[in-house]
Design a protein that fits this description.
The protein is mainly α and 266 residues long. It has helices at residues 2-21, 24-46, 51-71, 75-96, 105-129, 131-155, 170-191, 196-227, 242-263, and strands spanning 159-161, 165-169. A two-stranded antiparallel sheet has the order 1-2. 44% of the residues are buried.
Length: 266
Amino acid sequence: MRQRLITATLLLAVFLPLLLYSPVWLFFSVLVLVFILAAGEWWQLSGVRHPRLWQSAAAFTLLLLTPLLFELPDLPIYVAGASTIFWACTLVLLIALRRRGTLSPGFLAVAGFPALIPAFALGIWLQGRQPLWLLWGIGIVILTDVFAMLAGKRFGRARLAPMLSPGKTWAGLWGGLLGGVLGGTLGAGLFWSWQPAICLAGAGIGIVVATFGVAGDLFESLLKRSAGQKDSGQLLPGHGGVLDRLDALTAGLPVFISLLFLWGKL
């Protein structure tokens, strides 16, 4: 636990100033490097042949897509919407696979493109427009993760998805949703108003983002399970690999941005 906290503190100390104060080109450059690491872990776990070729194709796609988000005003909403549809279908699939079933390496390899690219591209785009809103979306996911961990440790008994992630419990899920509601409500109140209707909308955003964040986490667990691995890598002491820290964000962030579009804030 101590090593986990030290690593998380160091990551936040580096990432927060980068998110809030760096120019877009610098944030873009750093996230492309992070994406390459995450993509390498994804396709290594998928078991597909020539994982570096898949990794390179995904990085090239990200490099093409991200500048277009800034050039074409309507493109971000389409990318966010398409990603949300993908994760909604994935959520249904995970429910079906909760107690039994696996997915083929080919499916997991192809799924890496919609699972990873939109989140990174949209994150870079939102940082260029409203860095604090990006921090809000990330904060919802972090609070979901923290509350889920605390509730799971204290009250966890019944397993949520034993065939996908044996460590996750129903208590952890409810705790995570509570964390999402808290994060969504705080963000709406701080950025707009503490009026009940605004806070309620923020809470709604929080619970939806938290739900999809759990889907992203479980989908990566399914990927690791298919490879027989506990972690996606060993790069981050106490946390595992890059994917282990970003799995919930890959689903939560595009959904968060879609909800902001739906709310008329973007």
